[in-house]
Amino acid sequence: MNTRDRHKVTSTAEEFIELGDQRVSYTLRRSPRRRSIALLIDERGLRVAAPLAAPQQAIDSLLREHAVWVLRKVGDWQQKRPPPRSWAAGEQIMFIGQPLSLVMQSGIDAPKITGDCLLVGPPALTPKAVETRVRNWLKRQALDLYTQRCADFSVQLGLSAPAVRLSSARTRWGSCHVSGRISMNWRLIQAPLTWIDYVAAHEVAHLRQMNHSRAFWLAVAALVPDYADRRAALRRDTQRYLLL
Ligand SMILES: [Zn+2]
């Protein structure tokens, strides 16, 4: 969790390359901090990290040079990855650590929870429209909850409630800007409340200490005494909640 926005000019794009007789898709991330081109396979598939000005030709050559490795790794990844979401009835959505089963229902304008179901409607919606509605609903819930938790923690530290906004970075859960604005990842709304609270407490503690000094961790501990366990759990299981 960095304390400053360092990714302002970073760009991300979906690209593909023909390797042998296969069309291989990858995510290209250009960043001002990179000095060289790097290939990586993670839970989302093939990713290429490149400097802002790297020519596409240089990226293509590197991919071709490592074609055997890329094809083998992408093949392994395709076998292991979870099946793509259908965004149809029965789909499981995680919400504050609880699974909700998607139910398509008529007369439903905005998604709503009933028991362990998330009602979405009308039933004629396309999967893409269902996905959009569910994501937007998750984001609204996330912003409400994060704003409330950050306000509560701020009061405990004798601070005024910070402005909170959502981020969608796939690499981090939260950040605190020098201006005092807190950003938290909307995907974290899928995780248990203890994790959400750890991230909120961490960022609120940065309002006191814009660093990771001993004083900073004491402030975090004042808000969530078992923060080390929560932090470890969040790090261990983080990928589950980044896929949506
Ligand atoms: Zn931090």
Q: Can you offer a commentary on this structure?
A:
The chain folds into three domains: 11-80, no CATH class; 92-135, no CATH class; 139-241, Metalloproteases ("zincins"), catalytic domain (Zincin-like), CATH 3.30.2010. The strands form three sheets. The chain has a four-stranded mixed beta sheet, with helices on one face. A four-stranded mixed beta sheet has the order 5-6-8-7, with helices on one face. Strands 9-11-10 form a three-stranded mixed beta sheet, with helices on one face. Helix 3 (127-156) crosses helix 4, helix 4 (193-208) crosses helix 5 (214-223) and helix 4 (193-208) packs across helix 6 (227-236). The chain has 244 residues and is of the alpha/beta class. It contains six helices and eleven strands. It binds zinc ion. Zinc ion binds at residues 1, 3, 202, 206, 212.
List keywords for this structure.
single chain; 244 residues; 4-stranded mixed β-sheet; disordered N terminus; binds zinc ion
